[in-house]
């Protein structure tokens, strides 16, 4: 679909992402030998012993993120590469984050296989298929992912189909079996009703349930209100340097800064920076709507971002020419200990509305990447065109295998070719 819509505007770019920890950079996704060598021999021994202990005495209950990671990598590696960053992202202790999130989003690393390969080379895998990464380069829109949707809207307009932006859905009117109309308010404040045969919703599931008119039963409303979200803000800085670092983005595991991740937009696509003599960085902070960082003024946040760049040694504050702040509410659906119970209440009731289709990350309260989110929407459209449920839109990206690698010589099955359930994320 990306190729169909963007054509030659989809360019091939090299990928490099790393983790910053204790003044050093480590490969991401984690490569065991790179991590062990970078941490030094003493720490490597501690990690190895911790890993061995986790294999001999695994936790019998695997409920939390901490349980899941410690069982697979050992407590020491968990404390170094997972705990600090994960708690930054979610604003929760790892013991309160569901193991579902880890199973869905973390590529499983085989430390034993990595050590064998380091010592024995290819002989360690003799007779077996060779594993290669799929993520050393990727396709990317010349002017960023927004170009995809701008181009799609332009193509729709050429067909006489209007895309209405800045229009808020204030009520979803239904009769208990079908949605009958939407009450919407446009940017001018005018209120009107829209009707259609089907509604595809990617709004936050909590918002969707609370917007239904008449309201669903009290237990469904209560379940929706139990769903939690993590919010997000980006401080974009223009730096008066043509090059700063080669990464597309860097994960910041240092507890010395509030910063969680840095995007280097020029390394995604050179055309995303208007002046080749400068670099555009996006410093990302994981926040909760209404907290101190969310409520801080733009000037204060730009000053914080400049200071933290200096602390990390990535750029000098004096080189920062300009900046702006973008806030994104409900960026991440939270996988806490209650979310699955809430979904078990919401989904059966929502299924009664046969022409309402919940898709996407927020629409399904599932931490999907962009590609998986698009697949849910494609499935919804297939069901609408067929007039019956051919695809289960809730059955996308439910496997533990995340699609970051493949085995050379393995051909996808017919089922995998026809059903894109595992799509490597950009």
Short description:
The chain has 17 helices and 17 strands.
Detail the poorly predicted runs: 118-126, 128-134, 400-426
Helix-residue proportion:
25-40%
General shape: globular
Content of β-strand: 15-25%
Mean pLDDT: 87
Computed CA radius of gyration, to the nearest angstrom: 23 Å
What is the β-strand count? Answer: 17
What is the strand arrangement across the widest sheet?
3-2-12-13-14-11-15
Q: Give the count of helical stretches.
A: 17
Estimated structural class? alpha+beta
Distance between the termini: 14 Å
How does the major sheet shape up?
7 strands, mixed
Q: Would you kindly provide a written description of the structure presented here, covering whatever features stand out?
A:
- It is a single chain.
- Strand 2 and strand 3 form a beta hairpin.
- By secondary structure, this protein is of the alpha+beta class.
- The radius of gyration is 23 Å and the shape is globular.
- The strands form 5 sheets. A 7-stranded mixed sheet has the order 3-2-12-13-14-11-15, sandwiched between helices. A 4-stranded mixed sheet has the order 8-7-6-10. Strands 1-5 form a two-stranded antiparallel ribbon.
- It is built from 17 helices and 17 strands.
Secondary structure layout plus pairing:
Layout: H1 2-6, E1 10-14, E2 17-21, E3 24-28, H2 32-39, H3 41-56, H4 65-73, H5 75-90, H6 99-105, H7 111-120, E4 131-133, E5 137-141, H8 146-158, E6 168-174, E7 179-185, E8 191-194, E9 199-201, H9 205-211, E10 212-213, H10 218-226, E11 229-239, E12 249-252, E13 261-264, H11 265-268, E14 279-287, H12 292-295, H13 298-312, E15 320-333, H14 339-350, E16 356-358, H15 360-363, H16 370-386, E17 405-407, H17 414-418
Parallel strand pairs: 2-12, 6-10, 9-16
Antiparallel strand pairs: 1-5, 2-3, 4-17, 6-7, 7-8, 11-14, 11-15, 12-13, 13-14
Helix pairs in contact: 2-3, 3-4, 4-5, 4-6, 9-10, 10-14
């Amino acid at each position: 679909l990306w190729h169909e819509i963007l054509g030659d505007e989809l360019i091939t770019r090299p990928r490099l992402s790393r983790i910053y920890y204790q003044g050093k950079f480590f490969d991401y996704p984690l490569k065991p030998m790179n991590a062990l060598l970078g941490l030094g021999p003493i720490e490597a021994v501690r990690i190895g012993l911790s890993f061995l202990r986790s294999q001999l005495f695994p936790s019998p209950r695997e409920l939390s993120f901490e349980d899941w990671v410690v069982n697979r990598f050992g407590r020491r590696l968990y404390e170094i590469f997972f705990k600090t960053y994960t708690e930054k992202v979610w604003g929760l202790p790892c013991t309160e984050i569901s193991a579902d999130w880890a199973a869905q989003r973390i590529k499983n690393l085989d430390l034993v296989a990595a050590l064998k390969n380091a010592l024995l080379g290819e002989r360690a895998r003799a007779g077996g298929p060779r594993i290669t990464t799929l993520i050393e380069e990727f396709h990317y829109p010349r002017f960023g992912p927004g170009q995809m949707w701008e181009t799609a809207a332009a193509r729709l307009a050429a067909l006489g189909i209007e895309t209405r932006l800045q229009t808020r859905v204030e009520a979803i009117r239904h009769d208990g079996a079908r949605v009958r109309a939407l009450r919407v308010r446009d940017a001018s404040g005018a209120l009107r009703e829209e009707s259609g045969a089907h509604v595809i919703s990617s709004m936050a599931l909590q918002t969707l349930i609370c917007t239904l008119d008449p309201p669903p039963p009290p237990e469904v409303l209560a379940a929706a209100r139990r769903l939690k979200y993590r919010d997000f803000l980006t401080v974009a800085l223009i730096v008066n340097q043509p090059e700063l670092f080669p990464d597309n983005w860097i994960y910041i595991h240092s507890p010395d800064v509030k910063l969680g991740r840095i995007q280097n937009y020029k390394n995604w696509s050179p055309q995303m920076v208007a002046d080749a003599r400068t670099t555009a960085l996006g410093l990302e902070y994981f926040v909760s709507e209404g907290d101190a960082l969310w409520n801080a003024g733009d000037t204060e946040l730009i000053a914080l971002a400049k200071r933290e760049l200096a602390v990390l040694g990535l750029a000098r504050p004096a080189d920062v020419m300009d900046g702006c702040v973008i806030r994104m509410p409900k960026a991440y659906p939270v996988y806490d200990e209650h979310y699955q119970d809430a979904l078990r209440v919401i989904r059966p009731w929502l299924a009664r509305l046969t022409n309402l289709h919940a898709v996407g990350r927020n629409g399904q309260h599932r931490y999907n990447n962009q590609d998986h989110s698009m697949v849910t929407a494609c499935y919804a459209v297939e069901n609408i065109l067929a007039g019956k449920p051919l695809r289960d839109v809730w059955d996308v990206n439910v496997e533990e295998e995340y699609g970051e690698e493949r085995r050379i010589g393995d051909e996808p099955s017919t089922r995998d070719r026809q059903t894109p359930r595992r799509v490597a994320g950009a």
